[in-house]
Amino acid sequence: MKLLKTIAASVSITLASVTSVLAAPIEIKFSHVVAENTPKGKMATKFKELVEQRLSGKVVVKVFPNAQLFGDDKVLEAMLLGDVQLAAPALSKIKKYNKQVQVFDLPFLFDDMAAIDRFQQGPEGKKLLKSLEKRGLVGLGYLHNGFKQLSASSPLKVPGDAKGKKFRIMASDVLVEQFRAVSANPVKKPFAEVFTLLQTKAIDGQENTWSNMYSKKFYEVQPYITESNHGVLDYVVLSSKEFWLSLPADIRPTVEKALQEAIVYGNQVALAKDQEDKQAIIASKRSQVVTLTPEERQQWVDAMKPVWKKFEVELGKDLIQAAISANQGK
Ligand code: LMR
């Protein structure tokens, strides 16, 4: 009997060790739509490096750039189904989960990146992140890209130049109104389609950051880029609540720390790339950068700013006011 017990005990010890050796590492798929050489692309790679260094054998991170796995409209549905664990969509693409995030799309709202930081890290910004939990998503942090510029097939100096032109936009109703305010025609399209739409002249223009226009070669098919800095393109880093809370207690804090470090790094890349990629576009001579005089820029402000009023009820007056106040917190 004693012998039998000893054999049984040793078999179960052996099985336990085999199971732990064979235990598959946790897999985190990080899906995004931009190129690797961008703030988000580099942030994702940094996250992978940090996690795999610190949790070697326990967690693997697979990064899928360039909409290889999921495009704009599908990634969060896929996340809720458990097919992808991390994503960082532009704030302009998640109105389905909370309409108020469209506050970031209001034209000419923020003076600079520091104001955006103050708003995101302040109570209202934190509340917006938290609000996504009701929809099964965990907002793990904001990530910068930068200010948007307007590119087109003809020079855009004053709002009248945009009249009747077709512009691709991200899926935000504020952006629809922003272009209608200058009598242009906005069309919501996924990021992965923009280059071809521009190349085939199915659309006349689009708005994006220097980094996205450079890395996706929009400047090769858009002869003019107006340096308007009229709006912001930032991201929210998301996971599903189900996946995030399922991470073991000895693993989650390390993953979270790696993510926060990767975001800090991504934000540094965003600041640097904003300048570098603009210079690279200028140096390419494929696209002419149109600089606005203060008077010309003011015309765009005057034409687009009435959009704020239109969204006062939907976004909330207080929320808009908090964003405006972030400009004065210098
Ligand atoms: C876009 O669709 O233009 C951007 O949101 C792409 C991105 O992720 O930066």
UniProtKB/TrEMBL annotation:
Sorted keywords for this record are: Signal, Transport
Alphabetical GO biological process terms: C4-dicarboxylate transport; transmembrane transport
The family database entries (InterPro entries) matched by this protein are listed as: DctP_fam, TRAP_DctP, TRAP_DctP_sf
**Secretion signal, residue range per the UniProt entry:** 1-23
User: Which domain of life, per UniProt?
Assistant: Bacteria
From the UniProt record, list the coiled-coil ranges.
Answer: none
Pfam families with a match to the protein in the record: DctP
Quote the Gene3D superfamilies the UniProt record gives. Answer: Bacterial extracellular solute-binding protein, family 7 (3.40.190.170)
One GO cellular component term of this record is: outer membrane-bounded periplasmic space
Q: Which family does it belong to?
A: Belongs to the bacterial solute-binding protein 7 family.
This chain belongs to the protein called TRAP transporter substrate-binding protein
Source organism per UniProt: Spartinivicinus marinus
